[in-house]
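Appendix B, record 7
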Amino acid sequence: LIAQIPKDYYEFLLKLQKNLASKIKSVGKIDYDYWRTYTNDKKTEPALNFIDGDLIESFLDLSSAEMAECTEGIMYNMNGQNRKATVDDIIKIVEELSRIH
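Structure tokens (predicted):
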């Protein structure tokens, strides 16, 4: 699914994605940024402005402790006020996103 999302929402998901990528080790222990990099015979480009829905959904498979670790540094805009996101905030958002596709 390809969709445009508001900047605040993108920044929220990007921070979660970065936290998850550093926490979750892939099969073969391939670095997430390396795996997502576009490469052909002429150039190599990093993936930019891209949210990986599969990686975001993997948040739901983590233990409670791992979820708490992945929320560090993530701010959540609630009724016009920024506050630190809780595990429950992120679970709710990820579950809503997973229903889209």
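Remarks on this record: The chain has a mean pLDDT of 85. The two ends are 7 Å apart (CA to CA).
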